[in-house]
Amino acid sequence: MDGIFISYRRDDSAGYAGRLYDRLAAHFGSERVFMDVEGIDPGTDFVDAIERAVTSCKVLIVLIGHEWLEINDGSGHRRLDDPHDFIRIETSTALKRDIRVVPVLLDGALMPRADQLPEELIGLSRRQAIEVRHKQWESSTGNLIDALEKIYLADGQDVAVTVTKTSSRSSDDKGRQKSKSRGIWAAIGLAFMVAVGGWLASPYLFEQPVSKKTPDLSPTIAAVQAPESPVLAPPQPPVRDQPVAKGRLEVDPLQIDYGTVMVGSAVEAKLILTNSGDAKIPAPDFLLGGDATNIISIDSDDCSGELSPKESCAVVLRIFPSNEGSLNTKLKIVRPNDSPITVSLSAIAKARPVVIAAAPTRPAVSAGPVPEPVAKPITKPVVPPVRMAMIPKIVHFTSKVSGKRARLCYEVEHAQRLVIEPRPGQLTHLKKDCVVVVLDGPTAFKIVAHTDNQKVTDSLVATPEKTAEPHPRPVVIPAKPDPPVIVDSKLPNVGDKWIYKIRGRWASSPKRTIEVAVLSIKENAIQESLAQIDSNARKQLGHRFVRGPVAYVTQSNQLGTEFSPYLHAFAGLTAKSAWRGIPTPDTNNFWTNWNTRGEVDGKETITLPAGTFNALKITIQSSRNQSGSPAEATREPVRVTYRIWYAKEVKRFVKMVRNTISASGQAIDTDTFELVSYQQK
Length: 681
Fold this sequence. Notes:
CATH architecture of the largest domain: Beta Barrel
Strand order of the largest sheet: 25-24-23-22-33-32-31-30-29-28
CATH class of the largest domain: Mainly Beta
Helix content: 10-25%
Number of helices: 7
Oligomer: single chain
């Protein structure tokens, strides 16, 4: 029960597993370190064999690379979702048997979140991980060895003695053994010389008559036969580490009652997270139970980083019911290396009452005595712990036309964003203002007031005034009119807009907010405008053309490579779609000959800043052979994986994760695109 078991995927970390085995075997002994379950005879239950092997160990090391979580089997399903997957069996067995599980993250791989793991592996997400890197192999694996020695030391095992018994002990240990042996034989020789010298010198040193009897040499012989062992210092107890500083997460409150919430409105409450310990703690994960994700949003941006001692942050829980009924659910706050904290959420959703004014009636007159009114007890109103989100309201929207100019005036309440379509677009003043537009003819204008999850609209038609003409106009035969523009609610239309937040893998990667807008559509080719926006400025990035119903990889200087952004809107995607030989452009004109294929993984419910969507998830794999020198291996891309989620009602992808791997097997970058908001005709 003192072995070390290394759990790994051959497709993800076989090279690391072999090197780590050699490192640990050299330190702890090869009889203590295990990599694979060998010798499973035909007909043997491999689940029992794996469980026996894992339970015979004290520590299970789980090697987690960049692809550990998402590796698929031959049928396209994630291996980790298979109950018979070796890695899942090994890890779940260790978690159930209280065997120490140590996640080891390889070259910057991310720790899996609880919502990405099967239920029986959720405990893995709460284990403290150790990072191992190729470029700092000796130092990073040394940290792992130090952690393993502390595990054995905490259970009272002397790791140093165990190491000296193995055949792989160090040269310093062997030198100490040889030196110890030489010291023992030197002591025996010295005792022998002293004894013999004393026997020869005794007649001359002591004034006693020499006896003819044989002297009694038993003490001397005994000294030679059984020399005294060198006095060794008593073994010292192992030095225990000083108490390790720990963080402690506290949540307030643990129960939230939203009370009665009107359908179509929104109510929010705040959770306060506090670190009452004396060490930093990482950001926790938030898991909602049941189908509550469809009507509850979690804004945890304030608690997205590490929480220092005595520091607090706020999590906003917003509920926006669409149907009547009661809600009773749980929010689990998953903490690393600790049990989750559960917060109870409850609410009652009701439809807004329709008030019908009744005709006034004459009160009935009674001949009897008038009863005294019964005084009702005055109770202190209960102030709910939440605040109502305000619904936008358009007070008025009018126009005044003078010639070919229209003055559009508006007054709006509680709007967070305000737009007049088709022009002038987004407005600066959100309460009250007037704007002037030029009319080419009768024009329908629509004002749209937005909040986080509500919008209201109003519209009007402005017609330019006719001016008196000094001379009659010549009769002109009108040319053949252009075909009317048909607005298809299922396809992208001119004026549709999407805003994405884009972030990279590394902390130093720039974070951008990009707006994509449709300028024109010609024969299924969409002309887009790209703009970078932030709180202070807006920067136009240019225009580009994107094909709609074609499965292909497109590339732009602004966004890099993407896979068919509009494919689902043009009915080019079904639950059984699969592609081979997808057209892929060269990367930076240097890296060519890409082989791209992909398929649909299935349906998945995904929650983003723009809302919750039932999406089709697809995986696209692009690969090529290395063409550069060995020195370019760390920066030459040879594999790009795209994971894309399409929601048909949005007309474009709602999320894309692009992972680029170099020829040396290292991650160059992982770019994540998430939809923040969208606007459609």
